């Protein structure tokens, strides 16, 4: 058997980028030989094995043939007679279709190295059109590599448009859309992912609420603003959906099957951004803190305010600071002290509320006097 390092590890090594994960292709082997060598088989769709020491993935060379729609609409052929070039031909982009032999020789049958030099993301073959997930992957690679000068080749972008027009994007399942979108939100230029989907027409299928140029512009401006402020998915997702109404935001987040924390922060941003731009009395500040569940989730309150300072029009920093000050001055109201006074149930809740209001009002008076 012959073993080759393939895909992203080869690409990133040639670009001088850190190599995070290494994938391997095994040519000329059978599953039985791999198991006899100590590898552990995983995956049901095609033979993939984990190395007994490194736990890295080793896949038997394979070919694919389209049999239906979507990501799972393929039959896979994997046997000892599949060549390395046949395996590389089924990959999406030329820059991902290179391999490194054990002796260090680069195997590059489709011009990936040349495309790296010219900063082009170009499809390997017309088989690209058989898998709509490649639309998202290509957009994500553009989001990662655009800061290094990469652009999608015109012929590849044209093929992506033709795939959308043929209805292929409609066969993407929400789980895969979310997986790629979540990854894209953490790329170096996340806005490029959504701009690319808009350019090829896929955004109207996958995120139709953001397909209008004005809304997309607002969404990408908020995303660009919040990205340096933190790397958590929920703040980036909330910024992306910030131009939507609360109803649209809730519906789209659920359809994407986004995690609960992402759904909740996006909904809170859409619901409260306008209100947070205004000055508030002590009672109104307390109501906002109650409505956003700040007492139990103070970190989420801080993330909400950070996102709201990036929406258009932005919540002024003075307003965000005032609400945080209100929270900080009222958060230490001790229920135990009130319980020792014999309070319980509804009366206890009312006493806690009154004490919080008293402290916020006192802070407001001090601020006014200052």
Number of helices: 18
Beta strands, count: 11
Q: In percent terms, what proportion of residues is strand?
A: 5-15%
Helix percentage: 40-55%
The main sheet orders its strands as 3-4-5-2-1-8-9
* Order of H and E elements: EHEHEEEEEHEEHEHEHHHHHHHHHHHHH
> Roughly how many Å is the radius of gyration?
26 Å
Amino- and carboxy-terminal Cα gap: 78 Å
Low-confidence stretches: none
Major sheet summary line: 7 strands, mixed
Please state the structural category.
alpha+beta
Shape designation: elongated
Mean pLDDT across residues: 92
Write a structural description.
The structure is a single chain. A hairpin with a 5-residue loop joins strand 3 and strand 4. Strands 3-4-5-2-1-8-9 form a 7-stranded mixed β-sheet. The chain has a two-stranded antiparallel ribbon with strand order 6-7. A two-stranded parallel sheet has the order 10-11. The protein has 18 helices and 11 strands. The protein is elongated and about 80 Å long. The protein has helices at residues 8-15, 31-36, 84-89, 112-117, 133-145, 154-165, 174-185, 190-200, 203-206, 213-226, 233-240, 246-255, 260-276, 282-291, 298-308, 317-330, 335-339, 345-369, and strands spanning 2-6, 23-27, 40-42, 48-50, 57-60, 62-66, 74-78, 99-100, 106-107, 120-121, 151-152. The chain starts with a strand and ends with a helix. Helix 11 (233-240) packs across helix 13 (260-276).
